[in-house]
Design a protein that fits this description.
114 residues, alpha+beta
Amino acid sequence: MSEPTDWQQETRDIIESLLEDGSNPDAHYTVEHHFSGSDFNRLEKAAVDCFKAGFEVTDAEELTLERGQTLLCFDAVGKAPLTEEAIGAQIQQLLPIAAKYGIEYDGWGTYFEE
């Protein structure tokens, strides 16, 4: 058996934390995948590809980092059951888009479900 990737381990940890806190294991979750970069044109092209792949895409936001650098970011939003397989499949769709445009895939998040 191969070693899990960083994303696999992070996904496993997030899911375990949510379930330990009592989140509903049978709900469909809104999963926000985070992207960032410094080039608006690259980010915009990646957002279009994410949209074409079936994700809702948020408007780009501008963040100023501690050292004064500006970073642009957006989320690609999908729905999925809270399983490593389902969320991992979304990640596998999105990682090549980030790589294609030289932007960062910064992980994913979701919300507690009753």
